[in-house]
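From: lab user (bench 3)
To: helpdesk
Subject: output format question, protein + zinc ion

Hello, I'm new to running complex predictions and I'm not sure whether the block I got back is the full result or only part of it. Here's what I submitted:
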Amino acid sequence: MSDSTEHTHVTVLGSATVVPEGDQDTACLLVNDDHMIDTGWNAAINMTRYGADPLAVDYLFITHCHHDHYIGLPQLLFVHAMRRSRRPDRPPLTVIGPKPDIGMVVDRALSFLRAEQFPSVNTKPHVVALQAGDSFTTPRFEVTTAPTVHPVVGLCYRFRDLQTGASLAVTGDTAYRLPLADHVRGVDLLIHEASRGACASDPNAKGGHSGSIDAARIALAGEVGRLGLIHYPSAARQEILAAACEVFPETVALVEGDRIELP
Ligand SMILES: [Zn+2]
Ligand SMILES: [Zn+2]
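Helpdesk reply: Thanks, we reran it on our side. This is the complete output you should expect:
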């Protein structure tokens, strides 16, 4: 767990959609070094690139079980298993995600690692399957959830820092859904997807994604402190940022390696 005097900080380990683009891994966030949200393709490796230790992750929150959000899970589990001797006092990784998909994904990650044949990699993570509306508490955060609009069940997470009172929300993939503004209301930082680019997207369109104007409208309606855009096409970064800023000026388009301090 992080130093209790430390303000919450968020490190961006990826901001791309579906597959990594250039130097951008897919959506992956690290909160205070020990809480991760989605894994991207290369979460474990990227942590070391940005000065973090993969073994320090105690809680992994998966927003939804599309591949670009959990494809790095086997690697993270493998690193934890191989280096377990360095942290014998720590509990196994806790993986939190939407019911019912998260249990299946963790089981299959362990199958991919052939955990039953190789006892050295059989570090069974603790799985917490949530439904929208459920909450979960770690030593540092109270986490509440709301449903997203996407082809698979997804959770928008809201984190409240129990020590500083700072707050953060992460939508995962979702079409524009105005009730999300109530769930994220007043957070210091909202991280919202913008897969559709510099537009307001049809919320009923196939795929269930937002444009950056949708994200900005949620930020505005929810009266959040700052908006961070993620899960967007890298080539359109300037356009999506400009379009969002017209609606909600306190917006940044996140890129891998960014570090944001919360109050
Ligand atoms: Zn998705
Ligand atoms: Zn995605």
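A quick orientation on your result: The chain has a mean pLDDT of 93. Let us know if anything else is unclear.
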